[in-house]
C-alpha cells in the first residue's frame, strides 16, 4: 500500500461556513430547473389540453398536446397574463393546413385550437359545405361533417383575409365555433403550431388511449 504524501498530511479543511449546505445545493438546482422550464415554455414548446370536440377526429377530448412556439416566432408575454410584448422572429408564417393554438378574439383569457384555412390576401367562400379559396375548391381531407349542423355553417362569404391575419375552422365543421362566426385571427395572437399528442385520456373514466400517445398532429 502506498504511503500518504507527507506534503498533504495535516492540511486544514475548508471552514464549515464556506461549504455549501445540502439544502442550498438543492435550492440552487431547483431554481435552475425552474428557469429552464420557463425558458422552454416561453420559447420552445407548451402543453395544452383539448377540452372540446371541434377538432374531431384529428384531436379528441382528453388529448394533451405539445405546441411548437418557435416555428412562427415565440410570442413574448408578461408572465401570468396575455399581454404581448412582441414576438421573436420565426421560421415561417402560418399556412393553410396548419393546426394552431391562439388567443380567442372574443375572450382573451381563453385559448382555442383550429386549422388554418386561408391566409392574408386569400378570399374564402363556402357554398353548401364546399370551401372555395380564391374561387377554387379546396379539398381538406381532415374536414368532417355530421347530421347536427351549426346555424350558418354551410355557407359563408366571400371574405378576403386582411393582412397579418388567418382564417381558421375546426375539422368538425358542423360543430365548430370558428372564424365563420367571429372573424379572422391576428397572427400576433397565435401561440404556436400543434406538434404531437403526448398524453390522452378517454372520457370521464380516464382510460389511457395508448394508441394516440406520440401521434403527430397534422
Keyword list:
single chain, 218 residues, mainly beta, eight-stranded antiparallel sheet, four-stranded antiparallel sheet, 2 helices, 32% strand, disordered N terminus
Outline the structure in words.
There is one protein chain. With 218 residues, this protein is mainly beta. It has a single domain, classed as Umud Fragment, subunit A. It has helices at residues 22-43, 179-182; strands spanning 45-49, 63-68, 75-77, 84-87, 99-103, 111-119, 123-127, 130-133, 136-137, 156-160, 165-169, 185-186, 190-202, 207-208. Strands 1, 2, 5, 6, 11, 12, 13 and 14 form an 8-stranded antiparallel beta sheet that branches. Strands 9-8-7-10 form a 4-stranded antiparallel beta sheet, with no helix packed on it. The chain has a two-stranded antiparallel ribbon with strand order 3-4. The longest helix has 22 residues, at 22-43. The chain is globular and about 70 Å long. The N and C termini lie far apart (67 Å). Mean pLDDT is 85; it is low at 1-8.
Q: Secondary-structure blueprint of this entry?
A:
Elements: H1 22-43, E1 45-49, E2 63-68, E3 75-77, E4 84-87, E5 99-103, E6 111-119, E7 123-127, E8 130-133, E9 136-137, E10 156-160, E11 165-169, H2 179-182, E12 185-186, E13 190-202, E14 207-208
Antiparallel strand pairs: 1-2, 2-13, 3-4, 5-6, 5-13, 6-11, 7-8, 7-10, 8-9, 11-12, 13-14
Give a short summary of the structure.
The protein is mostly beta strands and 218 residues long. 12% of the residues lie in helices and 32% in strands.
